[in-house]
Amino acid sequence: MLAPQIVHASSGLDQSFLQPMGPVAEEQFNHLLRVIGITMIVILPVLIGVPYILWRYRYAKPRGEYRPEWEFSERLEWALWGVPVVVVLVLAGWLWHSTAKLDPYDPVGPEPLQVQAVGLDWKWVFIYPDEGIATVNELAVPVGRPVELTLTTDTVMQSLLISSLTGQIYAMPGMTTKLNFAASRTGEAEGENTQFNGRGFGRQKFIVRALDPADYAEWVGNVPQTLVLDEPTYATLRRQSVLADARTDLGLEKSAEPIVMTLGETDLFDRIIAKYHRRRTADRDSGLGGTGLPSDSASEGNR
User: Fold this and answer.
1) Which residues pair with 118 in a beta bridge?
2) Distance (Å, rounded) from C-alpha 203 to C-alpha 223?
3) Separation of alpha carbons 137 and 188, rounded Å
4) What's the distance, CA 55 to chain centroid?
5) Which pLDDT tens digit goes with each residue over 261-286?
6) What SS3 class is residue 53?
7) Closest by Cα among 183, 122, 118, 121 to 150
8) Omega before 124 cis (within 30°)?
9) Residue 260: helix, strand or coil by DSSP?
10) 158 phi and psi angles, rounded to 5 deg
11) Which stretches of the chain are DSSP H helices?
12) Band of the pLDDT at 17, cuts 50, 70, 90?
């Protein structure tokens, strides 16, 4: 049975692709090993050759032939120019292959779990439309099942990164991006916003929990019914506040524990995006906490 726990970001969580929890991060780790291996072809001769030359041709006991008229060596030129060119070509080929293989828009398997992410100041809201669940600063996923994360932001541009599971991708207001990944083992990782967005930026981190399918089903079934993510709740979350202050605004105990809610409006994510595409109306300015866009008068004054 899953026990409730309070986990603070950065405390005992996997925070690097050097600790891969899924196939995407594992491919990134393997790519790093390949890059290190091929660059050693250039680095090792320098690390070994420089001390050897200094020792062999030292002034006290020179062992080399003195050739003051020596100007050119074809074999040396081929080595000096040919090896770096081959290294660059190999690295470019591997980089192209990994980039195409890790396209964030390509699903990593059939029937992915659909999750919608909304970046706010200074927290992340995750919506599970099929499960009817929403969370703040916690992303739970079942091990072995692909995840398709659709992102947007209801404030300035942000960038989501879960290093031990997947790469980084940007999110902008009124637009969506996608990030596909999967977890291959259980564990807890750290996710974060890597795009500076104000004084609460350093605390905009969230917990990613990779659970066994049975534990994930239990987590879904144990969501409390006391708090519902609807328009008033979302408007409160949209205020500029870190997680602990947002909990206080919602009448909860002030702590760093993530918020788990039932989803009151299934089209909430679409409405957040749509309000940025309407002409300036009172509904856009007040609904779902507004948009934060400049007023018409301010816009006209800047023309």
Assistant:
1) 125, 152
2) 25
3) 13
4) 49
5) 999 888 999 999 998 887 665 555 55
6) helix
7) 118
8) no
9) strand
10) -135, 170
11) 23-56, 74-101, 213-221, 231-237, 243-249, 268-274, 282-286, 296-301
12) confident
Nearest of 125, 146, 145 to residue 134 by alpha carbon: 125
Task: Inform me whether the pLDDT recorded for 87 exceeds 50.
Answer: yes
Q: Which residue has the tokens 């393997």?
A: 30
d(CA 241, CA 249): 9
Q: How far apart are CA 291 and CA 279, in angstroms?
A: 12
Span 184-226, pLDDT tens digits: 999 999 999 999 998 999 999 999 999 999 999 999 999 888 8
Smallest Cα–Cα separation from 268: which of 224, 225, 233, 244?
Answer: 233
Which residues, other chains included, contact 254 with Cβ-Cβ below 8 Å and sequence gap of 6+?
244, 245, 247, 248
**Integer Cα distance of 293 and 271 in angstroms:** 16
Separation CA 141–CA 128 (nearest Å): 10
Phi, psi for 18 (deg, rounded to 5) = -75, -10
If 0-12 CB within 10 Å is exposed, 13-18 middle and 19+ buried, where does residue 174 land?
middle
